[in-house]
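Appendix B: complex inputs.
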Amino acid sequence: MKIVEVVDIKKTFDNKMAVDGVSFEVKKGEIFGLLGPNGAGKSTLTGILSCLLAPTSGDASIDNKSVVGNPMGVKKILGVIPQDIALYPTLTARENLYFWGRMYDLSAVEARARAEDLLKMVGLTDRADELIDTYSGGMKRRINIAAGLLHRPKVLLMDEPTVGIDPQSRNHILETVKTLNNQGLTVIYTSHYMEEVEFLCDRIAIMDQGKIIAQGTQDELRQVVGSDDVIRINVVGATEDTVAELTQIPLVSKASLKENEIDVLSKKGRSVLADVVAKLNEREVKINSVEIQEPDLEVVFLHLTGKNLRD
Ligand SMILES: Nc1ncnc2c1ncn2[C@@H]1O[C@H](COP(=O)(O)OP(=O)(O)OP(=O)(O)O)[C@@H](O)[C@H]1O
Ligand SMILES: [Mg+2]
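Resulting structure:
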């Protein structure tokens, strides 16, 4: 069942098309990734979905509430984690969360309780009475996430929540997103980091120059490239005859030997691996190491646009 529907959204600034006819759907309970390089239009789209920017044309609905027609309805059920930190530097973390809770119409008691729960969730209870100004970038981001969750949204919209922070905070954030999703929250996760989107997302839309150039599950996107997985095996004692035998294995498209390295190409690298290893054992070839390279989203992006995701 879909909970988010985006229909042909366009946004022009002066003469510049920042978002150029974007459509997609997000199903209830999924983590949907929006992957794209700098300037792709991710934040503009995020701004429109969170009702901070009006689209030039098109519309989107969150749980059947239109961002154009019913922004108040959308704001009640959508949690937004903006790319830029939206916290008061001269208040403590606890005070910030209480303040934002009250802004979301929580009662004083409720706002206090939610602040405590969320401080615990982001692992900052111990530091809650320090001023935001004195926080590291990663800690600020974690409080920023807590702030977006105060009103128990059904859908969470995150715009590059891990840019420019330490690896520990980054991992903490990624794990938090997984946990929240396991508890039933639907997430739209914007990033230009392929690994994050690969780790988190059920389905992904790849965005470039205001347009969605491909969308689907990770497997579907890899199929766009159509290239094989490569199984690279470092061996001792292999002959051309043995390698020729490997090509007889179902789903193996090619096998080649170069010095002490065999490359086996297959659409389904992981599935054929056992048969390949068994055949080499049978021919008494000693295996030193095995490595599988699958086409990743970086390759998909390169294939579709002719450029790298990060330059
Ligand atoms: N307020 C604005 N006025 C004019 N142009 C804008 C405005 N906001 C964004 N743009 C332009 O729209 C395009 C998309 O920008 P946007 O910030 O949405 O990209 P992004 O994918 O979020 O990039 P990043 O990864 O750098 O955050 C860019 O070319 C940007 O310069
Ligand atoms: Mg952005």
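The domain at 2-223 is CATH 3.40.50.300 (Rossmann fold).
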